[in-house]
Design brief:
- Helix content is 57%, strand content 16%.
- A hairpin with a 6-residue loop joins strand 6 and strand 7.
- With 352 residues, it is α/β, with parallel strands linked by helices.
- It folds into four domains: 78 residues, no CATH class; 80 residues, no CATH class; 121 residues, Rossmann fold (3-Layer(aba) Sandwich); 64 residues, OB fold (Dihydrolipoamide Acetyltransferase, E2P).
- The radius of gyration is 32 Å and the shape is elongated.
- It has 15 helices and ten strands.
Length: 352
């Protein structure tokens, strides 16, 4: 039994016992059964009866209460302490205003005003004050001294969590990015990604099996690294791993780390921010411009007649026209054009 469930069960027991002590003797006295059952005045007995009745009547709502408390816990943990503090200040302001309005209504003396409107006003102003304090914290910081306001503003920043995709795990480069400290925010590992890696690792195809085992090794290193990671378990099962990642990204307000070009496009349509490892790799590659001259080893023939192919140190493919005869040799080339895509970069060159 987890802590939240224990708290809910204990609260149910306390409420049931309290209501039993308060209500049962009154009901027994009004119905005239108190004389026949004098033990209904025993506080220990009626407390137990109250607990049992409370669980029988309201026990069906326990899962909903636990779910609501978990949502509240997630809401609080997702925001910084400064945000929660200002939200609490806004809530208190709303309650104080509602007390003053209730006092004014009390002077009017109408029973409708006394019993109905104060409750509505209190609930409305409490919610409004909480949202005001949470959303307008930056403007409220202006009332603080400059140094204190600057410190509080810096503490309100919280990085979005990152959900890692199967393709990014198998690719493996994300591990080096994490170790270098270029990521911020918690790394979330969906259980569906782990299951997909296990399926690939158990494949009869040797290539797929090697990729799956490599992915599991990378995943273990990410989880064991000195970086905040967490395995998340979706409440529903999804046959499509991409749909699962989109759903979790919306739920946790997270970014998605991937090398999958199709998932990149789906996330863009669904309004989810994507961190594409291929795009990062392209961004940090040495800059090669049209007209640059290089000395390159040609390693194989190209697809088109007469073409030769070589590779830069970062793995970028270079296609050279009329260089088939020089495969296996170093040649001097000049860059003529560069084709940039989300899946990689291809450079075209000519002999000089």
């Amino acid at each position: 039994m987890n802590i939240i469930k224990m708290i809910v069960v204990a609260s149910y027991a306390i409420l049931g016992a309290a209501l039993g002590v308060v209500i049962i003797p009154s009901v027994a006295r009004d119905t005239g059964v108190l004389n026949a059952y004098p033990w209904l005045t025993n506080k220990y007995i009626i407390s137990l009866i109250g607990i049992v009745l409370f669980f029988i009547i309201f026990g069906v709502f326990i899962p909903r209460v636990i779910k609501s408390l978990r949502k509240l816990e997630y809401f609080i943990m997702r925001h910084s302490a400064i945000e929660i503090l200002f939200a609490a200040i806004g809530l208190i302001m709303g309650l104080l205003i509602s007390v003053m309005i209730s006092f004014i209504l009390n002077l009017i003396g109408s029973s409708l005003f006394l019993h109905v409107l104060p409750i509505i006003i209190t609930v409305f102003l409490s919610y409004l004050g909480f949202q005001f304090g949470l959303k307008k914290r930056d403007e409220m910081l202006m009332f603080l001294p400059e140094k204190m306001a600057r410190s509080a503003h810096l503490n309100t920043y919280s990085a979005a969590p990152k959900i890692i995709d199967t393709s990014a795990v198998i690719d493996g480069r994300i591990l080096d990015v994490i170790k270098c400290g270029f990521l911020d925010g918690e790394i979330l590992i969906p259980q569906g990604v782990i299951n997909e890696l296990q399926i690939v690792a158990d494949s009869t195809d040797s290539v797929k099996r090697d990729k799956g085992q490599h992915g599991l090794d990378i995943l273990n290193q990410i989880h064991d690294a000195s970086y905040p990671t967490r395995i998340i378990h979706p409440q529903k099962s999804y046959n499509d791993i991409d749909a699962l990642l989109i759903k979790l990204a919306h739920k946790y307000k997270a970014d998605v780390i991937t090398t999958d070009f199709n998932l990149n496009k789906i996330c863009h349509v669904q309004g989810v921010k994507v961190l594409n490892v291929n795009d990062l790799s392209e961004a940090v590659k040495p800059t090669v411009r049209q007209g640059d001259q290089l000395n390159l080893l040609l390693t194989k023939m190209g697809k088109e007649p007469g073409q030769g192919v070589g590779y830069l140190e970062d793995g970028t493919m270079v296609v050279i026209d009329d260089a088939k005869a020089y495969v296996g040799k170093h040649v001097d080339i000049e860059i003529t054009s560069i084709l940039q895509t989300s899946s990689g970069r291809i450079i075209f060159a000519k002999l000089i």
